[in-house]
């Protein structure tokens, strides 16, 4: 059949079917399940993700594509800043949910792309005494999980901003998008219809920005957005992290969303 599973007609028992590895032989017994991929029999245990791949160390990557396109994936901030200095017009990529649309539907050209997904310093998530620090490459789904943890563990008056952001993330795009889209990418595209950018301002968030020399400056969220898709980032600068201070007593943060659809 097109499903890849053995035909159901004929005998009901499986006689001496060898596994795809050619080692194990299954006697006259009904198999637990079949693999939807290649019709192989699952007799006792489901396959697990290979431990060798799970333990494999990440490596910096440099790939060359058609027409001179280049794609880099650094692992540390200093390497990212060096690439940023070397290619000041390169586009930074995390989930590619924005740039992919620009390239596919707006014919935008980005010959050099730098992936920031594996940069350690951009993936920090730190719960501090005075607030929450979030690296700019942290995925929206991961942010959602840490916010739920913070809300459960800290005093309720401290987490008013966190609760508002967490509630908004429920209706922010679909799960598959939140699994790849980064918080920094959402901020730096400065979309006027972004669900989160008004919340950063309401929550008194501060953005840490680093330049190609490693110098860091802090900008308040309400001063970071300069206009339609314009932000306070000079050439060569990168959004490093976002800091959300705990809410103060009798300080309440709420957001209300009106849309044609529940998601996206």
UniProtKB/TrEMBL annotation:
Pfam families: FAD_binding_5 (PF00941). Its cofactor is FAD. Transmembrane segments: none annotated. Residues 64-249 form the FAD-binding PCMH-type domain. One of its GO terms (molecular function) is iron ion binding. Gene3D superfamilies: 3.30.465.10, Uridine Diphospho-n-acetylenolpyruvylglucosamine Reductase, domain 2 (3.30.43.10). SUPFAM superfamilies: FAD-binding/transporter-associated domain-like. InterPro entries: Ald_Oxase/xanthine_DH-like (IPR016208), FAD-bd_PCMH (IPR016166), FAD-bd_PCMH-like_sf (IPR036318), FAD-bd_PCMH_sub1 (IPR016167), FAD-bd_PCMH_sub2 (IPR016169), Mopterin_DH_FAD-bd (IPR002346). PANTHER family: XANTHINE DEHYDROGENASE. This is Xanthine dehydrogenase. The lineage of its organism: Eukaryota, Viridiplantae, Streptophyta, Embryophyta, Tracheophyta.
């Amino acid at each position: 059949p097109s499903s890849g599973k053995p035909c159901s007609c004929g005998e009901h028992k499986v006689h001496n079917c060898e596994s795809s590895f050619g080692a194990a032989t299954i006697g006259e017994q009904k198999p637990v399940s079949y693999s939807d991929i290649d019709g192989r029999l699952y007799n006792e245990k489901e396959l697990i993700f290979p431990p060798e791949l799970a333990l494999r160390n990440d490596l910096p990557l440099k790939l060359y594509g058609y027409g001179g396109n280049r794609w880099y994936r650094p692992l540390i901030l200093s390497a990212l800043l060096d690439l940023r200095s070397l290619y000041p017009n390169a586009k930074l990529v995390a989930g590619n949910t924005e740039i992919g649309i620009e390239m596919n539907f707006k014919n935008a050209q980005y010959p050099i792309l730098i992936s920031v997904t594996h940069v350690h310093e951009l993936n920090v998530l730190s719960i501090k005494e005075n607030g929450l620090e979030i690296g700019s490459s942290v995925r929206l789904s991961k942010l959602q999980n840490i916010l739920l943890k913070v809300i459960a563990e800290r005093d309720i008056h401290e987490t008013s901003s966190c609760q508002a952001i967490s509630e908004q993330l429920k209706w922010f795009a679909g799960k598959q998008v939140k699994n790849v889209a980064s918080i920094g990418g959402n901020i730096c595209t400065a979309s006027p219809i972004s669900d989160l950018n008004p919340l950063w301002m309401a929550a008194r968030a501060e953005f840490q920005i680093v330049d190609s020399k490693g110098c860091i400056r802090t900008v308040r969220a309400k001063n970071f957005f300069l206009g339609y898709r314009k932000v306070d980032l000079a050439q060569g600068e990168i959004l490093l992290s976002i800091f959300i201070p705990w809410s103060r007593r009798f300080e309440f943060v709420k957001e209300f969303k009106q849309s044609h659809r529940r998601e996206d």
